[in-house]
Write a structure and sequence with these properties.
- With 342 residues, the chain is an alpha/beta fold.
- The chain has two domains: 3-124, Up-down Bundle (Four Helix Bundle (Hemerythrin (Met), subunit A)), CATH 1.20.120.140; 141-330, Rossmann fold (3-Layer(aba) Sandwich).
- The protein has helices spanning 3-22, 30-45, 47-63, 69-81, 86-102, 108-124, 153-166, 183-194, 206-219, 236-253, 271-283, 302-309, 331-339; strands spanning 141-146, 171-176, 197-199, 224-229, 259-266, 288-292, 314-318, 326-328.
- It is globular and about 65 Å long.
- It binds guanosine-5'-triphosphate and magnesium ion.
């Protein structure tokens, strides 16, 4: 049995028990319940992508009785329009052709299995990827959120803060977006809404705000400090300087802790989001990606393009607008959410 069949088997069971949990017919552990809920979010949030590109893939199996060059051409086109990225798709098709040749594959049902396995391998390769935030217990940990305008930085901070608070962490939000009018108030409102602390004022230098906020957080033994930043990339050199300064200030206060820098990108912007990731990677040390608005795109293949072209782990995905809709990225749930009907 292939990887895909195994994933399908595991997660379709989780979907089945969701109803029983909802009806209170069975009692499961909190952890298991969380797994079931998250699986459901992937299934819901990826429905547009599933309806679009996965259904197109299924039609290929009806259209072609034999695996021919035309079949591969169409397959390529479908994957490219799903935002997987041209080079990634080319490599993928080459590997697929090789396997078809070597394993004498003729049956489309089996080919489906191979297609999903190989897509899965684009992400996983032979690495061990972690979507966990790099957080040390007993320390004041800093997570910086960077990204261009409107991608969802501030809402992602709120959503992640909500989750951290739920898991018992003492959380502070720092308003490092001193550029956009209203940004400080917006973050303050989020903090109140989810019940975490806030630090911010009307100074224009984000590093000065971070300096004071982080010192307070360290004195008062906060576990995690989430820092909002301004979303402008008009001037790369300035942004680089600004981020360097922020990092210096943070290193001065908590010298032994790693700084988690999450780049937020909007999945609906497709290849544009990929270019943003490449640019940010050049100017600062990005440790993870938050991919928002996956629920709003029919081109969910972007996760695979990020892996291949940017090679930074996706740590969270946004599958809706609620606080509970930003969840840790899990490649198996993602594959299931995309291909469950394939
Ligand atoms: N559907 C959906 N909407 C989202 C998601 N994440 C964020 N949004 C919406 O995107 C919009 C912009 O979000 P913000 O958090 O303000 O973005 P930002 O990056 O902080 O923007 P600036 O501060 O202007 O740079 C808001 O209307 C959010 O509700 C998501 O995962 N799914
Ligand atoms: Mg913002």
């Amino acid at each position: 049995m292939g990887l895909f069949s195994k994933i399908k088997e595991v997660f379709s069971k989780k979907e089945e028990i969701k109803e029983e949990i909802d009806n209170k017919d069975i009692i499961v552990s909190e952890e298991e319940k969380e797994e079931v809920i998250e699986t459901d979010k992937y299934v819901e949030g990826l429905s547009k992508s599933r309806d679009n590109f996965v259904s197109k893939l299924s039609i290929l199996g009806i259209k072609y009785t034999k695996i021919s060059d035309d079949f591969y051409d169409e397959l390529e086109e479908i994957l490219i329009t799903a935002d997987i990225g041209v080079n990634t798709v080319m490599d993928f098709v080459d590997r697929l052709k090789k396997r078809v040749r070597e394993e004498h594959i003729e049956d489309f049902e089996y080919l489906k299995e191979v297609i999903v396995d190989e897509l899965f391998m684009i992400y996983v390769g032979d690495e061990i990827l972690s979507s966990k935030l790099n957080i040390i217990d007993g320390e004041t940990n800093v997570v910086l959120f960077v990204g261009v305008n409107g991608v969802g930085k501030t809402t992602s901070i709120a959503k992640i803060a909500y989750n951290l608070k739920k898991s018992g962490k003492k959380v502070m939000l720092i308003a490092g977006d001193t550029f956009r009018a209203g940004a400080v108030t917006q973050l303050d409102e989020w903090a109140k809404r989810i019940g975490v602390d806030f630090f911010g004022d009307d100074r224009k230098d984000p590093s000065a705000v971070i300096y004071d906020g982080l010192n307070k957080a360290k004195e008062e033994k906060y576990d995690v400090v989430l820092v909002d930043t301004a979303g402008r990339l008009q001037n790369k050199a300035n942004l680089m300087k600004e981020l360097e300064k922020m990092n210096r200030v943070i290193n001065e206060i908590v010298p032994n802790n790693p700084i988690e820098t999450l780049l937020v990108i909007d999945a609906t912007t497709g290849q544009n989001g990929i270019s943003q990731a490449k640019s940010f990677k050049e100017i600062t040390n990005i440790t993870g990606i938050v991919l928002t608005k996956l629920d709003g795109t029919a081109k969910g293949g972007i996760v695979l393009a990020i892996k291949e072209l940017v090679d930074i782990p996706v740590k969270f995905v946004g599958l809706g607008e609620k606080e509970t809709d930003l969840i840790p990225f899990d490649i198996e749930k993602y594959i299931y959410g995309l291909f469950k009907e394939f």
